[in-house]
Design brief:
Mean pLDDT: 89
CATH architecture of the largest domain: 3-Layer(aba) Sandwich
Structural class: alpha/beta
Number of domains: 2
CATH topology of the largest domain: Rossmann fold
Helix content: 40-55%
Order of helices and strands: EEEHEEHEHHHHEHEHEEHHH
Largest sheet: 6 strands, mixed
Oligomer: single chain
Number of strands: 10
Bound molecules: adenosine-5'-triphosphate, magnesium ion
Length: 271
């Protein structure tokens, strides 16, 4: 059997009396698109925070390409090839769109502080490459025409796409997206969906997304993991998850007829 790209075993995190993530195991293969869904407060973002080193798990292990990243710092984990975006957008609002991407790539540069200060040839070379690569990434997310605008002036949907460009600038093997379509209208969500598919296609990497938009989740995911009260309720293909009675109950309240509910109302039912 091949080693999965990401393998999470028995992950647990407690905040006081609350077990936010409770014994969750999860794995992601190469070139996969996997979704994590569940009601508000189910533990989805905490799960990402544990994988990316923002919180240290109380129990459990996280392996990236077969090597443990459990307990490493976020920058060390990023250096291993794991990138993410945040549910609450984190951009440098006062910097241009292009500068935002170039700065994100900066972690990979070799010339460092003295190179920048002394304006060495290597520094200039790396800077030129970073700007060229930044422009390529902006073209990829459809923002090259806005390269010189201030990031803070972009509409919400474009800020989310800029965050994805920033994450891709770190050259990840795995990208975690926390609610990439939040705040988007249906047209923007369609653009986001195609973008997620082309990340796999063009970069050959895997994507894990936390999402509330069920139409998006059902159409892009190879596999879906459902969290509820920190626990894994079920996982499997979109077909399996859509029909799972516990999923319908967790989202829509018990007593709702399974078959009809998940397909007709799931998109809005999660908010
Ligand atoms: N740093 C923290 N300290 C205490 N409690 C926390 C902390 N972070 C998260 N929680 C709690 O853990 C639970 C899970 O939160 P989390 O943000 O992971 O949920 P979520 O599934 O991402 O929800 P949403 O869909 O609303 O984003 C919630 O009850 C939340 O209040
Ligand atoms: Mg969240």
């Amino acid at each position: 059997m091949t080693t999965p790209l990401l393998k999470v075993t028995g992950l647990r995190k407690r905040f006081g009396g609350l077990v936010a993530v409770d014994n969750v195991s999860f794995s992601v293969g190469e070139r996969a698109i996997v979704s994590v869904i569940g009601p508000n407060g189910a533990g989805k973002t905490t799960f990402f925070n544990l994988i990316t080193g923002i919180y240290e798990p109380d129990e459990g292990e996280v392996l990236l390409s077969g090597r443990s990243i459990t307990g490493l710092r976020p920058d060390q984990i990023a250096g291993r090839g794991l990138a993410r975006t945040f549910q609450n957008i984190r951009l440098f609002a006062g910097m241009t769109v292009l500068e935002n991407v170039v700065v994100a790539r900066h972690a990979r540069l070799k010339s460092g502080y003295w190179g920048a200060l002394l304006q060495t040839a290597r520094y200039h070379d790396e800077m030129r490459q970073s700007i060229a690569r930044g422009m390529e990434l902006l073209r990829f997310v459809g923002l090259s025409a806005k390269a010189n605008e201030l990031a803070g002036n972009l509409p919400y949907g474009e800020q989310r796409r800029l965050e994805i460009a920033r994450a891709l600038a770190t050259e990840p093997v795995l990208l975690l997206l926390d609610e990439p379509s939040a705040g988007m209208n249906p047209q923007e969500t369609e653009v986001a969906k195609r973008l997620i598919q082309s990340i796999r296609q063009d970069f050959g990497i895997s994507v894990v997304l936390i999402e509330h938009d069920m139409r998006l989740v059902m159409s892009v995911s190879d596999s879906i993991t459902v969290l509820d009260y920190g626990r894994k309720l079920t996982e499997g293909s979109p077909q399996h998850v859509r029909q799972h009675p516990d999923v319908v109950a967790a989202y829509l309240g018990k007593g709702v007829a399974a078959g009809t509910a998940a397909t007709t109302t799931a998109g809005s039912a999660l908010r």
